[in-house]
Specification:
About 70% of the residues lie in helices and about 0% in strands. Among the domains are: about 135-225, no CATH class; about 230-325, Serine Threonine Protein Phosphatase 5, Tetratricopeptide repeat, CATH 1.25.40. The protein is mainly alpha-helical. Helix 15 runs antiparallel to helix 16. The chain is flat and about 65 Å long. The longest helix has 18 residues, at about 155-170.
Amino acid sequence: MNIDDLEWQSRGLGGYPPVLVDLLVERGHVEQLVRAASRGAWSCARAAAHELCRVGEFERALGVLEPYVQTGWEPARWAAADTLLSAGRVEQALDWARPDEAGPVSEHTCHNFAELLVKAGRVDEAIRVLMPHLDRGWILTALVELTERQDRDEWVLELLAPRVEIARSACGEKRWNFDASNAQELQAQVLERVGRVDDAVRALGSDIAAGRYLAQNTLEAYAALLRRNDRMEELRDLSTGEHAHVVLPYYAKALEEHGRAGEAETILRRHIETDEGICFRWPLIDLLRRQGRVEDAVEVGRPTFDYHDACLLENVIHLLAEAGRYDIALGLLDERDAAYVEEHSHWFHSNRMWLLGEAGCYEEALAYARTLPTGFYGMASSTAWILEETGRVEEALDLLRVDPDTDAWESAALLVRHGRADEAMDGMPSLAELRAASRWG
């Protein structure tokens, strides 16, 4: 075990991916996770430690993490500190994780330590740890998130104020690279959570009106604020001007929530008539879906289905699948011409297989798979899923095992789903073999 291997596992989800680990956790296979952890599988070690803590086996959880901590790898150290905290050994957890003050401390280390401090009830200390890095937008977000319901909102507003002023002036000064461009929306968020909605609307609204903001996210945050607080007049006015592309979907949703779905539909259709893009089509499709009008939703999306960009076909296919309308979804795929199928071959064939399987048309799906070129990427996994659904588990396993493009975890996951977790984990290659075979290197 070394840091390079651990970084590879973390960076590319190499080794034992989350889908397999989550499946083992879901089925209660903690011992298999522990065994895999002993072979260097970090994702299994982290999950095993969490599950052991959940049942009060703190010392054993620390034992699982110990070999990883010994490598000096930071994520393992933080996981061990979390385990100590869960065990009630607060001071030891903080001492273990406390950054070395002798040298520079990264913002990521400060964030992790602040998070640990908040869990330990040391909120003031957590804020001070973050303060040197508050010109970074994601740290500013962490400050707001970590202090929610911690009775520190006035202090947080004081810390936000200078960043808000810089964000307001940055646009006029053409300083587009100001990282904490989210300061204004975060200020509004804190004002709202302390009950000062009028102040939040006033401050953010004046900045939007004057164009004193840097990112579209700020405009979206303002529209969401108005919608949450039933500020229908302000939301309507904002949706009729230059910001309609961003704000109108929020206004339409607010109208629907107030029992005015017909009015929302009319407004969206009016804008669609004068705009060839999709910014108004998807909100209307979503509105029609919620009303059970899936055929009407399809017709709204249809003009985009052959676009190269801004195509809503995949979105509509999934909407139809969620509604159980596999017949319509398959029909839409079959309407595509040969050129479209050739250009989007992987997406087209895998989605057609998926829809046939979801519809319970297993034999038709298998027959369709046989018409596709040998070695078609992803088809082994799709076919194996169909075989599994029909109870032909051994055939599915054989198919996965011989396909050169199928990862080892897929066979393991199939075995776990069928109560064969020991066999699944024993059959997994070593981490060295997995890395050698990985497409991520």
